[in-house]
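Loading example: each entry is read as three labelled lines plus one structure line.
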Amino acid sequence: MTQGIYDFIKSIFAPLGEYLIGSAVPVGSSFAGDIDALIALVAVFVGFWALLAYAAFFFLIFRFRARDGQRAQYVTGEEKDLKRWITYPHAAIILCDLVIVFMAIMVWYNIKQRLPEADSTVRIVAQQWAWNFVHPGPDNELDTDDDINTFNELHVQEGTTYHYELISKDVLHDFSVPVFRLKQDAIPGRVMKGWFRPTKAGAYDIQCAEMCGIGHGIMGARIIVETPEEHAAWMSQGSAGKLASR
Amino acid sequence: MAEAGTVDTHDAPAHDAEHGHHEQSFLSKYIFSTDHKIIAMQYMFTGIVMALIGGYMSYAFRMQLAFPGESVPGYGVVSQGEYNSLVTNHGTIMIFWVAMPMLIAAFGNYLIPLMIGADDMVFPRINRLSYQIFLISAIILIVSFFVPGGGFGGAWTSYPPLSANAEYNLTPYGATFWLVAVALEFVAFLLGGINFITTLMNSRAPGMRMHDIPMVLWMIIIASILFMASVGPLIAGAVMLFMDQVVGTGFFDPDRGGDPVLWQHLFWFFGHPEVYVVLLPAMGIVAEIICTFARKKLFNYKLILYTAFATGIISFFVWAHHQFVAGIDPRMANVFTITTLIISIPIAEMLFLYIATLYGGSIRLTTPMLWALSFIAEFLIGGITGIFLGASGSDIYFHDTYFVLAHFHYTFFPIAIIGFFAGITYWFPKMFGRMMNDSLGKIHFWGTIIAFNFIFIPLFILGAAGQHRRIYNFQNFPDLAGMQDLRVIATSALLVMLVFQAIFLFNFVYSLFKGKPAGKNPWKANTLEWTADSPPPHGNWPELPNCYRGPYEYSVPGREDDYWPQDVPPDTAPAE
Amino acid sequence: MSTMTRPIATTRSATGIPTGKLAVWWVIGSEIVIFGGLLASYVMFRLGHPEWAEYASHTNTWFGGANTFVLLTSSLFAVLAHHAAEHGDGKTAAKWLLGTCAGGLVFLCIKAVEWTGEIQHGYTITANGFWSFYYTAAGIHALHVIAGCIIMLIIAKQAWKGQELQRVELIGIYWHFVDIVWIFLFPLLYIAK
């Protein structure tokens, strides 16, 4: 039921979301479209109220500009017929807020609160000022001999659901992949878990999104989303040669 | 000034010695004065100096972003570490050493006694002490750039373990100096706040009831209470962080059982109410100006007051929206999404009421009025873009991007800069007895406002395209390297805006000496400060005024004048 | 204070509460949130780290208990000083204030002995999270005791000359607050094991 309402509202705003965000940053994960649609929804709602407020604002400034021999009216603002101009829009805003809260929580729940069944798991180790990635290798299990370790380059397969285990060796970092619309702080001493499913092959930026010291500005990496064939080829090469790229 | 202050004729005990004063030396008159007006000026000029320093910093790092790696004229090459410490201290200075002293301390000190019809603050010497501590804190912060290792560069939020451990931040002294400076600034404002609250509660002119208090004073007082109620945990946190830095404890060190996220909670429990601590005084200044230049009563005074109280209370329950992706329990995010959207309700209502105040007015677009109206127009953008960030789902994408940066500059610029310009252009005649030049004021206004929008609208676009904050060179990121034009536009607009500030400084100094004499009440306003001489002498009035009505009785039907000062007794004609 | 005169503002009282007393209550309000933040952080840590109970078992409840008694007694002296001041008897008020001060001093001496022993046993401020909180919280409290004693000596001197007798009550309010903070610290640091 709630999912049905969510899907319906999302379908209305998805095209605008695609235009607003998706045109600048590729839609690279299964949930990127949800976030774009939510952004579009908020943009429409607040944009409507902002335009209305601006219209009223500039109209009043123009309409009630000082003119010779004309005095201002004496209005306390407690008159019922005037006050309703505030209370009605105000009630409507509360209604808009409810819709935004509903959509925001649905998106949040899907991305951060639930953990769908994974096809594979990667480990992400952040440190000052680089990313280390541990891929499970051909046996698809971490902490085995065929694990592939890479440096500043994460290889994932299109259409596969990944869990990530995010670890920091020193200070706070943040694993951010704009094309996935994904962001998660790494906290030393904890393992942060989450998920993503890449949907679009290509190479994209990973940025550190939490101030982590002098090298914060160079703490970037690349995420390589591969088709199943490419990924298999990379994996056989990787596990054979134990390469560490870059 | 001393000549204008006549001997007080009141029969109140024990204060004739202070007021029948003799020639004071420069030091005791301007440096160690206990007079609230002089202390207000001290705060204001310190704030202006700090604003120039903060502006210079933004010039250096914006130039680096537009022309990466090139030597910045007047600064030199911005290294990575310097870039970090420039953005960190730009933020710290603009909030703690510009917004707070200009809006709360300067206008609070100047206006509270004058607007409630008192001769000074209730504790003049604590007031002076508060400024002295504030000055020391500012000096410590400036010194922190020149200690070995350089200034602190771990962002104004100062998250541990980075801030706690010199091994990580590489600024062993800078980090501690930064922390001590911020903590001292808090102490200064606690002392000042106690003075403000007590003065307003106890020292109002006879006849001034709760609803006769000008809105700006309510706002400053609510802000002081908010500050006092929210800063305590962060002071405790600052002590803990200081111990981590200096003594070697592990409060925030995860390897030794500490918790780095605890600092984030303590910081934002203060950090979010802090937004309203500086917002409310600016809103109050705007209310005074709009009423004066629309010749209108404030639209539903009581409702505005209630929305301010509601905002203040709710602001204590929204802090974790800064931490959605910081590793808090994901279920908590839902609670804080709801509270954050709830706080949009009273703020939206307050803005609507301000706009409604224009209805039926007789609006004159003087320089202060332009600033006040632009506050509403610009803050509206800051407010609505906040919804994107308060909604947890979209915050996953926008968190820590330039979208956030542009959003809070659309709130803090109206608050700290527009709010200050509105206030200073409005009260300049009272403070210095002369009018500011209106043409220069308008040139300065349009230049600043237009340039401001050209700085931050490109940054909204960059943020929506996924550009993160606090990165000294975006050429390192292939997906971001292409949008350099937008960065150059933003930086060019910043240069234009900084150049326009020279007009303000010139106008300020020129009007100080050559401006048209203002007289007592140049704007024909109602509140009590306009009944004192311009500038008011020590002690403010020869005989303290009484209060007979609310502050916004403009255009009352049946009266010849369209204003009705608070101190005019009801039966007599208004003094003119 | 007699050398400087007050503004009229200070002598007004729109609320009916004397200005000095109002200010002291606001000071205490801001102090409550400072200690509140510190103690709330401590409680969060205790709930998250059951092993801290073991660390806490090395504190000496007898020392803590004795100090609680000393502080409560000194608070009683402060009440007696206020009582004397209300009757205009500055000299008696000053004597009781000195008694209160002596209580604060005894408190600090007991603390010094207690801490020396603990540090010698290796329970230093950097030993672990519990001891960090133990010394930080009690240390900030001790600073309040010292500040209170100094202010009290100044007020006692004035009260002896019969000046500013209303201040005797104000320092009393502050001293009770310092006492109450200890009443929270004692069970949290000593008894909860």
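DSSP finds seven helices and no strands in chain C.
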